[in-house]
DNA sequence: TTAGGGTTAG
């Protein structure tokens, strides 16, 4: 009988099998009956916390952390810092900086914090767009000796705030403290210099890292430099740099290297060279990813205005097992609308779910704006219906143009319905509707509408619209 | 635990 008992080992296996996080939580809280009180292993805590963190079920995750805190205060193995790092990162990805900071000091993890946890927190805060000074305060307060990774994150924060000089100062500081820079340090610095347009300094850094620090440039360093060259309009120099990479046995070319080159080549009218790049990738066994395809879609739609070519790219993506995302489709929708081809855009949007991608708020806004720009307000009205149903609001400009358009149609009933629907998604701009209303409505209707809209603004009268 | 590439609107 004892052998059949459901142990923490069995629970861990069951948690691994259960893909639905809510079901996994129920399983964790109510393990099948066992003769003795159930003892949770650290592994079970680890599994459920990671699952809840990934699913962003934070309140549930916090309650499990509290249980862990009270259970780990007794003797036994301590929760690993790696788990703490998962929790902190999850809060960073969810843009919850205060929660990330609280997690860092959570009593469920009684062990001493190392640079690893500190670095994870710094990175989470950087994800939340925290300014460099906040990160420096965190470093100071933690009292943990920084390592190269700490400095790399701080340098990136400096660059993100637009100060390459500060990034360089941090580099000097790490050298003074005897911390050896890594290839990531140089990758960060080169990218920062390129973003700031300081290409010469970036190329100097590529030399210095080898000569003075014995660190070889990798694909990250090369890709940043190639992008920098393209932005200066020197695509050929970027292509030469790619050849330099190919000539080095220790370097592996990847999809990112090629993605960097695609749009710049389209921009200068060299789409034939892009075909050559794709062939080259194939020859090297590099699979084109979404970044490469999306760059091609933008090239065909915006530079070439060749929608046959763009749709062919979509087909290639499907054939090659690369799933087009909303951005891929939005690029096409935007291009079509810009040329007044809103019918084609509308057909594509309708077909998106069948193709495995649901239109997002950007898709609808572009289609809506495209129809308004073409003066097709009744068509736009249909799109608005779908948007409101999904809780999407049109852009401020789009809503205004639309209301003005409906006003010109002179259909009072439609105008009333439009204003109500716009109000539902908070897209009512007062200047727009007041102007529209004053043009077409008689005083009594105007007064009634105004009342309705006031009550809508006070979030109390949605039923009046139906 | 840290760095590179692409793209839609506003």
Automatic annotation (TrEMBL):
The keyword Phosphoprotein does not apply. It comes from the Eukaryota. Keywords: Repeat, Transit peptide. One of its GO terms (molecular function) is mRNA binding. The keyword Repeat applies. Gene3D superfamilies: Tetratricopeptide repeat domain (1.25.40.10). Transmembrane segments: none annotated. PPR repeats lie at residues 147-181, 182-212, 218-248, 254-288, 289-324, 325-359, 360-394. InterPro entries: Mito_RNA-Proc/Resp, PPR_rpt, TPR-like_helical_dom_sf. PANTHER family: OS05G0207200 PROTEIN, PENTATRICOPEPTIDE REPEAT-CONTAINING PROTEIN 1, MITOCHONDRIAL. This is Pentacotripeptide-repeat region of PRORP domain-containing protein. It comes from Sorghum bicolor (Sorghum).
């Amino acid at each position: 009988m004892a052998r059949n008992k459901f142990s923490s080992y069995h629970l861990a296996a069951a948690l691994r099998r259960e893909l639905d996080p809510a079901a996994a939580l129920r399983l964790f809280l109510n393990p099948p009956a066992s003769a003795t009180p159930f003892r949770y292993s650290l592994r079970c805590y680890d599994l459920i916390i990671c699952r809840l963190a990934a699913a962003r079920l934070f309140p549930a995750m916090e309650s499990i952390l509290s249980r862990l805190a009270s259970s780990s205060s007794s003797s036994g193995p301590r929760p690993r810092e790696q788990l703490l790092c998962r929790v902190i990162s999850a809060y960073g990805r969810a843009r919850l900086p205060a929660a990330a900071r609280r997690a860092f000091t959570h009593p469920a993890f009684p062990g001493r914090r190392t640079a690893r946890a500190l670095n994870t927190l710094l990175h989470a805060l950087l994800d939340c767009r925290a300014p460099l000074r906040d990160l420096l305060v965190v470093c100071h307060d933690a009292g943990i000796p920084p390592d190269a990774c700490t400095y790399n994150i701080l340098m990136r924060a400096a660059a993100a705030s637009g100060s390459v000089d500060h990034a360089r100062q941090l580099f000097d500081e790490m050298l003074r403290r005897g911390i050896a820079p890594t290839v990531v340090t140089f990758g960060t610095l080169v990218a920062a210099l390129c973003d700031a347009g300081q290409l010469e300094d970036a190329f100097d850094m590529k030399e210095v890292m080898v000569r003075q620090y014995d660190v070889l440039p990798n694909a990250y360093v090369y890709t940043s430099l190639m992008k920098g060259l393209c932005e200066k309009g020197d695509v050929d120099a970027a292509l030469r740099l790619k050849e330099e990479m190919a000539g080095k046995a220790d370097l592996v070319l990847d999809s990112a290297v090629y993605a960097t080159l695609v749009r710049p080549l389209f921009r200068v009218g060299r789409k034939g060279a892009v075909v050559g790049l794709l062939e080259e990738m194939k020859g090297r066994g590099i699979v084109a990813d979404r970044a490469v395809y999306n760059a091609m879609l933008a090239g065909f739609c915006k530079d070439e205005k060749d929608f046959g070519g763009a749709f062919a790219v979509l087909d290639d993506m499907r054939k090659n097992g690369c799933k087009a995302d909303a951005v891929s489709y939005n690029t096409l929708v935007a291009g079509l609308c810009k040329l007044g081809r809103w019918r084609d855009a509308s057909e594509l949007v309708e077909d998106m779910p069948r193709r495995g991608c649901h239109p997002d708020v950007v898709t609808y806004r572009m289609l809506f704006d495209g129809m308004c720009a073409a003066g097709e307000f009744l068509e736009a009205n249909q799109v608005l219906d779908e948007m409101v149903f999904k809780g999407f609001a049109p852009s401020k400009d789009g809503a205004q143009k639309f209301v003005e358009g409906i006003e010109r149609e002179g259909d009072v009933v439609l105008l009333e319905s439009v204003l109500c629907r716009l109000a539902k998604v908070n897209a009512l701009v007062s200047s727009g509707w007041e102007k529209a209303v004053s043009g077409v409505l008689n005083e009594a209707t105007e007064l009634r509408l105004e009342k309705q809209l006031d009550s809508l603004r006070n979030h109390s009268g949605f039923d009046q619209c139906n």
